[in-house]
Structure formats: C-alpha cells, structure tokens
Amino acid sequence: xxxxxxxxxxxxxxxxxxxxxxxxxxxxxxxxxxxxxxxxxxxxxxxxxxxxxxxxxxxxxxxxxxxxxxxxxxxxxxxxxxxxxxxxxxxxxxxxxxxxxxxxxxxxxxxxxxxxxxxxxxxxxxxxxxxxxxxxxxxxxxxxxxxxxxxxxxxxxxxxxxxxxxxxxxxxxxxxxxxxxxxxxxxxxxxxxxxxxxxxxxxxxxxxxxxxxxxxxxxxxxxxxxxxxxxxxxxxxxxxxxxxxxxxxxxxxxxxxxxxxxxxxxxxxxxxxxxxxxxxxxxxxxxxxxxxxxx
Length: 295
Known about the structure:
Order of helices and strands: HHHHHHHHHHHHH
Number of helices: 13
Mean pLDDT: 79
Number of domains: 1
Distance between the termini: 22 Å
Strand content: under 5%
Shape: globular
Helix content: over 70%
Low-confidence stretches: none
Structural class: mainly alpha
C-alpha cells in the first residue's frame, strides 16, 4: 500500500509527460486530417493496441478491489468514459475553431483541477484545506504559463470551459469505476466508444478527408494512438485507482508544463513568466503530496 502511494503519482506524472509531448504531434496531424476522423483513428489504434495487452495479462491484470467481476459494470464504465472523452475533445476542438488560441485553450481546459473538487462535493468527496490551497496555486501557475495576452471571454472560450467540465466528469467517472472493474479492459472499451462516436460525427458533418492526407500524418496519428491514447489514458485509469481525484487532476495538469518544455526541445524559448508558472505548479504538486499532520 505504501509503495502504491508513491507509484500512482509517478504514473500520473508519466501520463502528463506523454500528453505534453503529444501537443506537437497533435498540432502537426490536425493540419492535414479533420478533427473527428483524426480522433477516431487515434482511438481505434489505442483500442487495438490494448487487445494483445489484455490477452497477455490474463489473470495478472489489476483486478477489482472487491474481487467481484461484473461485466455490466465494466461495459457501463467503458461507455461512460468513452462518451465523456469524446465530448471533451469535441468541445475543445470547437472552441479552438471559434477562435480560442492554444495558450488560452490549455489554461481553460486545465481548470478541471478546480472543477474536480467542486463536483466532488456533490459526490461526498470533500477536499482538505491544503488541497484547495494547492489547487489555487496551480491555477495561478497555469495562468502565467498559458495566458500571455489579455483575457476576454468569447464564445470559443465558453466551449473550452464546457470541455474542462467534461474532463472533470471524465476524471470522476474513472474514480468511480476503476476500483470496481479491470482497468485495462475499461480503457479498451473507452477507446472503441470514442472512436465510434468520432467516426459517426465525421459522417454527420461530412468531414473531408483523403487517404493521402492520412498517410501524410501517419507518424502523429501513430504516436497519439499508441502513446497519448493507448499508454496515457490507460495509465490514467490504472493510476487513479486509490488516488484522490483532485490530486490526480492536479498532477495531470502538468501536461501544460511538459508541452512548454517539449516546445523548447524543438527550438522554442521559455520566458520568465512561463518559468514562474512552472515553479508555482511544481510547488503546488509538492504541497499536495505532503502528509497530513496527525491530530
């Protein structure tokens, strides 16, 4: 149990790193392939990649905490997670289409670190004072990191805020189901549900795509399918088991920091403002992980 206390946050940091690096691939791939079809392809790849993992793990896969395998609960959890994931990514893309720039979109999306404990109140998951302080420090850090210009609210910003709310719901759904089902199987179902909805909306919106465009973007699609979706979201489901959802959301918001750092690797520079934002976020995570004082 003590080992798991440190392993789960570490796995969530790895998840944030994978997602942060994925911003470069996502920007490259979405320039040539439509957003719905793009998300559908990466989700299919992620789901297919997990099938041999499930077969190899067999009975060694992480089992439900109560030891009871319930197929209906597994399917329900996978469907709800996949639907929330699809809706969140859709509203994020819609907001950016309506004019929200990438930095502001990243900041508003990461506001799920505030929405998770707020929604958790209705689910009787009360956060401690220390956790709330950590969340507020992290939000300030995110603002310094992501928002460089003025902050005026537009229609696109509201769409991205809906995206943040849906990602908060996604985190809480995982928190509810991950102790009750086999995590990797639920992740696999999640990807196929997300893929089905993405392809359906690509047909409804008559999204224009060509085989040549898909071939031109095969490297970003493979990275996002295998790493960002397949590995990242699966690690999220596995690592969230037994982790406070508010703390988990704070650690995963570090994808913004890793996105900036990966941009530096490809020639971008880190400003003093962004550096202060990164430091504040590191401080918030460390503060949230400090043990509570015994009464």
